[in-house]
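Problem 12. The chain below contains 234 residues. Write out its predicted structure in token notation.
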Amino acid sequence: EELIVFVYLDHEERPVATTLEPYIYLHEFSLLRVNYTNKFGAFLDWGLEKDLFVPFREQARPMEKGKRYLVYMYLDEKSNRLAGTSKINQYLNNEELTVEEGEEVDLIISHITDMGINVIINEQHKGLMYKDEVYEDLRTGDRMKGYIKTIRPDNKIDVSLQKSGFENIEPNAEKILDELRANRGFLRLNDDSHPEDIKTVLRMSKKTFKKAIGTLYKQKLIEIKEDGIHLIRE
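Solution.
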């Protein structure tokens, strides 16, 4: 019988093989909790008996016990040990891009600022989502699918959780139908509704909402009245 094992060095620097699955692998990113700190650095829980060491010099800001941080795992060449770093930008490269506009990609939320939500794209590149285009609560370390919205001349990347253009209308139209069915065929929303009301109920922008109900109206699936949207009996 064959087993898949993970090999690492134990407390006495001996190679150990385990069938336990770590929370992070070499050259990957993950959100990990700090078990304890000392004068040398922080020690993070990564699912194995021996904690993952993050030296002080590799901490973007001083780590605290019990808190979670997004880290990257690398192999320390001097000690030949696996180690972690929260200085993740050094492992992201936007000089040579491997993505194209419109492409579906894997995203990890790296940090959230006043400007927007910074993301890691395919564990390779840096990207940005604008807050006014996001209609759900996101936290550092969250993983999801997204789409390359724009690649700028300086190779900075804008990302969206939804496809752009016509391709995105159908899924949102179906979402509105689902909400109508769940609410006895009526939603108190229409073209004149405030964008925040649409965002609260449907988690989409007013622009996307108007495109979606336009599609449903053309297909004679809904009626748009002053009091809201009415589902035509299917």
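Discussion. The mean pLDDT is 89. Students who got a different answer should revisit the alignment rule from Section 12.3.
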